[in-house]
Design goal:
With 475 residues, this protein is α+β, with helices and mostly antiparallel strands. It contains 16 helices and 25 strands. A hairpin with a 7-residue loop joins β3 and β4 (60-66).
């Protein structure tokens, strides 16, 4: 093993997409930058921005790289990205290895001009579509399924009068989860898969239209939230305004938003499909308190996504809420640990326990999920070392039992601790005094009437899935 090794904690994020179109012709690169900054929690491996000037030569300028948004871009590089139509992306790799070629947006030059495309999600039929394209002469530059989407849109555009019809025709072929932000020479197009797996919303600031994965990014650039893009909807923004195509929509009862947006992925200050993420997590915490009451002195949350659920648990149980952890905000989702002997303590690089808060106390610790169990076990060990007399773990999601094919990095069954162990066995393995998971039938209380996908807990997939995990099929 090498001297340095990367450590990944918890569950993989999604990706984040952002687009801006200034009708008055002003440069949008800095707006896209701040939008991506607000979506940084959705992906920390790579990022990129592509801009075009709808009034000038319509040449696409782009920059992308590995790392955080503020690592890849500086004032100088943003100044060079001149254009009033821009598309941006932050990436967490769900399909395709971590390398700069796989960073987005993808920019494709073809006979009708140039397309820039940013994609959040995962296709379930990407392997077949890619083979089909390869047999007709397509040469791929990346290992990501987003390139399959881009090719299909470009091919369809050769035989259709508009880019948005090309997007619609491509949507008839691609299956799975996707939120897309696309720039063609004079248009910005947003598209959401018919099931609504991935979020996408519309914002407006003066004469600038925006598309973003989450409403928090709309707010971050000082814009007004207009509405969510509906599942199956294609929105087209031109200098004449915004138009909508709902021809790919499916019946509402078949829709399937990713429930994990509300449990974990989305930022607390976002609202997705009229459901406030903060409210959803408070509701989850209250449900845990009802299902698994316990005698304790303090409720604490594991930063960041466990904090609000912990507040909900506290409110419902009457047990005081406290801050037991200091989180190092300067560490990404993946970091390098110095030596193998420090494997067990690697979580301390990200989190430290505040001893004064927990010493001599019975603690209820709320977190969003247990994937492999190692991180949770380390945190419990740290709490007990700091003097906590008991640690009762409450998890605001049901146990992970099945892989996700739609863009969430839920690992294979063998790596999921709940797949091969009972709750009692997991409790023992992580060293908790008690363990309670969110009950499946209480998930609906988080999102009201919204139709959602909970296949990673139930195995009931809303659409046909491949026989094998497609998320690394091209690596």
């Amino acid at each position: 093993m090498s001297e340095f090794e990367e450590v990944t904690t918890g569950l993989g994020e999604e990706c984040g997409v952002f687009g801006a179109y200034d009708m008055d012709g002003g440069d949008v690169a800095s707006t896209v930058y701040y939008g991506l900054f607000a979506l940084q929690h959705r992906g920390q491996e790579s990022c990129g921005i592509a801009v075009t000037d709808t009034y000038g030569k319509r040449k696409v300028l782009s920059k992308k790289g590995l790392g955080h948004v503020n690592d890849v871009f500086d004032r100088e590089s943003l100044t060079e990205l001149k254009g009033n139509l821009g598309v941006g992306h932050v990436r967490y790799s769900t399909a395709g290895a971590t390398r700069v070629e796989n960073a987005q947006p993808l920019v494709i030059n073809y006979v009708k001009g140039t397309l820039a495309i940013a994609h959040n999600g995962n296709l379930t039929n990407a392997v077949e579509l890619r083979k089909e394209l390869e047999y007709t002469g397509a040469i791929f530059q990346t290992t990501i399924d987003s390139e399959v989407i881009a090719y299909h849109i470009a091919r369809e555009r050769l035989n259709t009068p508009t880019a948005e019809i090309a997007v619609r025709n491509a949507m008839k072929k691609i299956k799975g989860a996707y939120a897309l932000v696309i720039s063609s020479p004079r248009k910005m197009i947003g598209a959401r898969d018919p099931w609504g797996f991935k979020p996408l919303c519309i914002g407006k600031r003066d004469n600038t239209y925006l598309l973003a994965s989450e409403s928090c990014a709309i707010a971050a650039v000082g814009a007004e939230f207009v509405r969510d893009v509906k599942p199956g909807e294609i929105v087209t923004i031109t200098k004449n305004g915004i138009s909508s195509d709902m021809s790919m929509a499916i019946p509402e009862e078949e829709q399937a938003r990713c429930i994990f947006e509300y449990i974990y992925f989305a930022r607390t200050d976002s609202t997705i499909d009229n459901v406030n993420v903060y409210h959803a997590r408070i509701t989850a915490g209250k449900a845990l308190a009802e299902s698994y009451p316990v005698e304790a002195d303090l409720v604490v949350g594991v930063p960041d996504s466990g904090l609000v659920a912990a507040k909900g648990y506290s409110e419902a149980s009457g047990i005081p809420y406290g801050m037991a952890f200091h989180k190092n905000s300067y560490v990404g989702r993946t970091f390098i640990k110095p030596t193998q002997s420090e494997r067990e303590s690697s979580v301390k690089i990200k989190l430290n326990v505040i001893e004064e808060v927990v010493k001599g106390k019975r603690i209820v610790m709320v977190d969003d999920s247990i994937v492999r169990g190692t991180t949770c076990a380390n945190i419990i060990k740290m709490l007990k070392k700091a003097g906590a007399t008991e640690v009762h773990v409450r998890i605001s999601s049901p146990p992970f039992l099945y892989p996700c094919y739609f863009g969430t990095d839920v690992p294979s069954n063998e790596q999921l601790i709940a797949h091969s162990h009972t709750t009692e066995q997991i409790r023992e393995m992580i060293g908790a005094d008690s363990l309670g998971y969110m009950e499946i039938d209480k998930l609906k209380d988080m999102v009201g009437d919204l139709k959602y996908c909970d296949a990673c807990f139930t195995g009931k997939y809303p659409i046909e899935v491949p026989n094998e995990d497609v998320s690394h099929a091209f690596d």
